[in-house]
Amino acid sequence: MDFLDTQATFLLVGVLLLTTVLAGSVSSRFGLPALIGFLGLGMLAGIDGPGGIDFENFAFAQAIGMASLVFILFSGGLDTDLKDVRRVAAPALIMASLGVLISAGIVAGAAVLLLDIAPPQAALLGAIIASTDAAAVFAILRSTGLDLHGDVPALIEVESGSNDPMAIFLVGAVLLFIAEPAASPLTLVPEFLVQMIMGAIVGIAVGFAMPALLKRGGYRQGGLAFVISIAAALIAFGAAELFSGNGFLAAYLAGLVAGSRSYAAKRTVSTFQDGMAWLAQVAMFLTLGLLVTPSQLGPVLVPGLAITAILMFIARPVSVFLCLAPFRQFAWRSKLFVSWAGLRGAVPIVLATFPIVAGVEGAFAIFNVVFFVVLLSSVIQGPTINWVAQRLAIADHESRASQRLGQSAEAQP
Prior knowledge:
Layout: H1 3-29, H2 34-45, H3 58-78, H4 82-115, H5 119-128, H6 134-144, H7 152-162, H8 164-179, H9 188-216, H10 223-242, H11 247-259, H12 266-291, H13 301-324, H14 332-340, H15 346-358, H16 363-392, H17 394-411
Helix pairs in contact: 1-2, 1-12, 2-12, 3-11, 3-12, 3-15, 4-5, 4-7, 4-8, 4-13, 5-8, 5-16, 6-7, 8-15, 9-10, 9-11, 10-11, 10-12, 13-14, 13-16, 14-16, 15-16
């Protein structure tokens, strides 16, 4: 690439990023999640749109997606109150593990019955779209200004920030069984435990180390504090993966622990990382939009509608109600809202690139179905979250429940 090509590339990337942000702002004004604008512009810039950019590098898109998720999760952890996490840790972790497994199983079974596809491909589809998306959930909850009482907002955020590792593990496990049909599922249990434990250890360690370094080094304000925060996110992910841990869990926990500590540059670092998370979302959704060929989505229209309906109205509610059954602080209204707030976003699309890179049969069809499901989830669930909250009256309901509990406690001797 010569100098002029480099200039043109930089100009194109800059224009695309700026236009993508404007597209996201326009979609938000119509009550749609910003990711719709991001994805839509990527599709317009792609091979079927006016832009005509021929982009088919799934491995590169996967790398961009994974790097973006690191900063999205790290920023999400920074902005999550550790006190909220302590209150909802048990239900959130159950939903992030068992809940993902239940959703994946229901979707996979439905795919075999309704779409007439082979069980391995159905299992891949179920695993890919089983987890909610941290970026989508964080953005929706923080942009709508929902005033939800109780532990519902914390539960949704913590679950969405911690369920990606389980989905990634499931996708990797299914790919392993496709490559090695004789492999035993029991052999994956120790690997899963090691991933979670090492990811947690590394994430917590980095979360304590970053504020300590900022304090001792005297980085109160400015650029060097920002550089250290970027390094912390990357080190958390990289070190965890190096020690066979889950890097995404490490990045989220590093942000969560660092956000609970006190240091001089905390506010500026948090603001900077919020900007990094938005940049990551823009880059990720734009890249994923470029991958999609709209003319190829016609054949997946019916399968996409079927899987979306199963996911929204059966798989997600069943997993939520089963996982939250032991926790009486969540009334049925809250469970319904949590079910509806399980948005899908970039994570399933990024995971859908894994089978393509691995050369799995039918991987492109799975990618198109996943993209269609994410699009429908964003268009249907995103704009209706406020309406559902109002219809369920969960804020008033939770408030009345808390008042009744307080009155009962005061009435007791």
